[in-house]
Design brief:
The complex is a heterodimer of chains A (377) and B (301). Chain A has helices at 2-17, 92-99, 138-154, 175-181, 209-215, 230-233, 246-249, 251-254, 279-283, 296-299, 343-346, and strands at 73-75, 88-90, 192-196, 204-208, 269-270, 332-334, 373-375. Chain A is α+β, with helices and mostly antiparallel strands and 377 residues long. In chain B, the strands form 4 sheets. Chain B has a 3-stranded mixed β-sheet with strand order 8-1-9, covered by helices on one side. Classes of the chains: A alpha+beta (377), B alpha+beta (301). The interface between A and B is medium-sized, with 23 and 27 residues.
């Protein structure tokens, strides 16, 4: 028994202190909230923040990536000898990942002012006999968070669907057991999906899922709204799909794509599978090293308009000149002499695609045989 | 329904009795034996939170030494097909109702004694076995009980039940608000086991504040009513719901304490001893008239 307590304390401490959520020092004066929401005085200071109880709803300001969250948590803060059931071993990460397609982290972490993730027991007392009955106790809070969704998707409220029964009177069920018995298979994010449609001129719509998430910067929620576990695990018979209008069918696409009947079809519908997006082929501008990781919107700022930019660097980087551009990022630190020159003195083409020329000043030198500084990469 | 009709019948009788005695029924308001404590306890049942796991039923039976069976068997949801009432071997039951607003989250309604502030059973008990305790519980003394079942008839919620299957020493049964447990500082068994804390135990006045706050914060989630706040003069157990309470088989009751009816019957019938005398006078008169008639008949023959 003593060994068990020791192990559980160690495990518990480990899980909580190794919580990979970093303490985010957000400049929270920049938040949308009114200061008086949480601070009682005019000018709160670090030593005297004069905090009042923040509202419980809509305060999730700390976004944590599900991928960095703990995979499995043993929920044993309420452990007692007379327990009818074993503590739940909660697959946190899979829940966090799936929540991205519905309400997000704040579905459970409904209150999180800037800083570390707030544990449920920060506000919800662990004893049911208490003076402040305005919010549920810890047991109630835990179960409400789970049952809100679980009863909806499985219609199953049996305790045994999450808990093992505590028959022996001592906990024998471990995280390892859990990992062997109750593991959700990895959810594979598709790369490419080809939809077979009824459109006459172009039956096939090739949808590159990876491009939309990785390049175009869409988060899951922008398309997958209100998708709970029931999307895959529904216990109810599938409803017959009713005839929906074109508008509804294209709802997810039309926020970015032109889906108007007269003009838009050809941009997605084709008789053949389409090739992945290629910026060079489309626009003639090659997204090389510096630009490949950017979201579309970092350059194409007007919503859903992707034209109007040219290959001249100045069309985006208008503020750059020889005095404020750190040439080191190109892999070459200019020497004292060259750092004084204007960019155009060496770089003749506006898009900096041609190699720099030395001929303006030097007769006997060429790039890259001679370099105007020191290479760093 | 039988009991309801019987009650209606008794009500009519009571009104008739009161009319005979010339005293209007509404003047005969029930008076509690002792003043109600400001700190009396209560429970707030949130039917929108309850998941219908029925663990409260198991805990209640276990706490009252009623054979409870296996805990796992309570996960069987087929019992929801029929509407159930508290029985002599189940002091609390959970019934399930559809939720038109969200069909996937049905409403679950736990039923047990409401522990009225002005209990009709206390008033109706002719041997004084029932009492309203300071902590809010309505309890009774089994040793004093003579099994007359007046409490069953008087209860506006039809809660007390009876050992009809026992020939010898049948008892009255109902939820006792876990009086023995709370006396020792424990929570009522159902409150303790509830996984989602759909049943909140606390001072009645605090529970009303909590309930009002919930309705104010989530007007879409709740109908604007706390059932039990004013019903029959107020009850210790109170309910929140997203559907109208009548649709969940809660009886529609006025704000007047229920003993007003039962006491008006009892007091009315015997008020100043006038109705009994009047009744005997009437019966005597009839006897006297018919006796005279008989005598006359005999004389003719």
């Amino acid at each position: 028994m003593k060994t068990y307590i020791k192990i559980s304390i160690i495990l518990f401490t480990f899980l909580f202190f190794s919580f990979p959520f970093p303490a985010i020092a957000q400049d929270h004066s920049q938040l949308k909230f009114n200061c008086s929401l949480c601070h009682a005085c005019e000018t709160p200071t670090k030593s005297n923040p004069c905090l009042i109880v923040c509202p419980r709803e809509k305060m999730m300001t700390v976004y944590m990536s599900p991928a960095k969250s703990p995979a499995v948590i043993k929920m044993d803060k309420l452990k007692s000898v007379q327990d009818l059931y074993e503590p739940v071993i909660f697959s946190h990460r899979i829940h966090a990942e799936m929540s991205e397609m519905s309400g997000g982290c704040e579905m459970c972490h409904h209150y999180n002012p800037p800083g570390d993730v707030v544990g449920c027991d920060n506000c919800h007392e662990s004893g049911r006999q208490r003076t402040d009955i305005s919010k549920p106790d810890l047991k109630g809070a835990y179960h409400r968070q789970c049952m809100d969704c679980h009863q909806e998707w499985s219609n199953n409220v049996a305790c045994e669907s999450c808990h093992e029964t505590n028959e022996s009177g001592k906990s024998a069920y471990t995280v390892k057991d859990y990992q062997q018995t109750r593991v959700h298979p990895e959810i594979k994010v598709p790369t490419k999906l080809v939809y077979n449609t009824t459109h006459e001129k172009g039956k096939l719509v090739t949808f590159f899922h990876n491009e939309h998430t990785d390049i175009y910067g869409l988060d899951c929620k922008s398309c997958h709204q209100q998708e709970s576990c029931a999307k895959c695990h529904s216990t109810e018979p599938e409803k017959k799909v009713e005839k929906v209008s074109l508008e509804v069918k294209h709802k997810n696409c039309s926020s970015c794509h032109d889906t108007k009947v007269k003009t838009g079809c050809a941009s997605c519908h084709s008789s053949k599978e389409m090739a992945p997006f290629n910026h060079l082929a489309r626009s003639g501008f090659n997204l090389k090293s510096y630009h490949s990781k950017l979201n579309c919107t970092s350059c194409h700022q007007s919503k859903s308009v992707f034209t109007g930019l040219n290959s001249s660097c100045q069309s985006c980087h208008s503020e750059w000149n020889s005095s404020n551009f750190n040439h080191k990022v190109t892999g070459l630190i200019l020497d004292e002499m060259h750092v004084e020159f204007d960019c155009g003195d060496c770089h003749e083409s506006e898009d900096y695609s041609k190699k720099p020329s030395c001929e303006g000043c030097h007769d006997d030198m060429t790039y890259p045989a001679n370099k105007p500084g020191k290479l760093v990469k | 329904m039988g009991e309801l009709n019987r009650r209606n019948f008794l009500k009519t009788l009571g009104v008739a009795g009161a009319t005979i005695s010339g005293i209007p029924a509404n003047k005969l308001l029930a008076q509690s034996k002792s003043d109600l404590s400001e700190d009396r306890m209560g429970v707030l049942v949130d039917t929108t939170v309850c998941i219908g796991c029925r663990r409260c039923e198991w805990a209640c039976k276990t706490a009252h030494d009623i054979p409870a069976g296996n805990l796992e068997d309570y996960s069987d949801e087929s019992v929801f097909e029929n509407m159930r009432r508290p029985a002599n071997d189940a002091y609390t039951v959970v019934n399930r109702y559809e939720n038109p607003a969200d069909p996937r989250s049905p409403l679950n309604v736990k039923v047990q004694c409401m522990h009225c502030d002005h209990p009709a059973c206390v008033s109706a008990c002719i041997v004084g076995a029932f009492s309203k305790e300071e902590n809010g519980a309505v309890i009774w003394d089994t040793d004093m009980c003579i099994g007359c079942r007046y409490c069953m008839v008087a209860c506006p919620f039809q809660v007390p039940t009876f050992d009809y299957d026992k020939a010898i020493q049948p008892n009255i049964h109902k939820c006792d608000f876990c009086f023995e447990r709370t006396k020792e500082g424990l929570l009522p068994a159902c409150v303790e086991i509830c996984p989602v804390e759909a049943i909140t135990y606390g001072r009645r006045r605090n529970l009303i504040e909590v309930a009002e706050k919930r309705i104010e914060l989530y007007p879409d989630r709740y109908v604007n009513k706390i059932y039990g706040f004013t019903e029959v003069g107020g009850t210790s157990w109170m309910y929140l719901s997203s559907r109208n309470f009548e649709e969940l088989d809660f009886p529609k009751l006025g704000d007047k304490p229920a003993p007003g009816v039962s006491e008006s019957i009892q007091h009315g019938i015997f008020a100043y001893f006038v109705p009994p005398i009047a009744l005997y006078a009437l019966l005597g008169g009839i006897m006297w008239i018919s006796k005279n008639k008989d005598n006359k008949g005999e004389g003719k023959e």
